Amino acid sequence: MKFLLVFDFDHTIIDENSDTWIVKCAPEGKLPNGLRNSYQPGHWTEYMGRVFVYLGDNGVKEDEMKRTMTTIPFTAGMIDLLGFIGENKELFDCIIVSDSNTVFIDWILKAADFHKVFDEVFTNPAAFSSTGYLTVEHFHAHHCAKCPKNLCKRKVLKEFLDKQLERGVSYTQIVYIGDGGNDLCPVMFLKKNDVAMPRQGYTLEKKISQLVQSLSPVQCSVLVWSSAIDIMSYLKLLIKE
Question: Which of 124, 97, 123, 122 is nearest to 183 (CA)?
Answer without folding.
Answer: 97
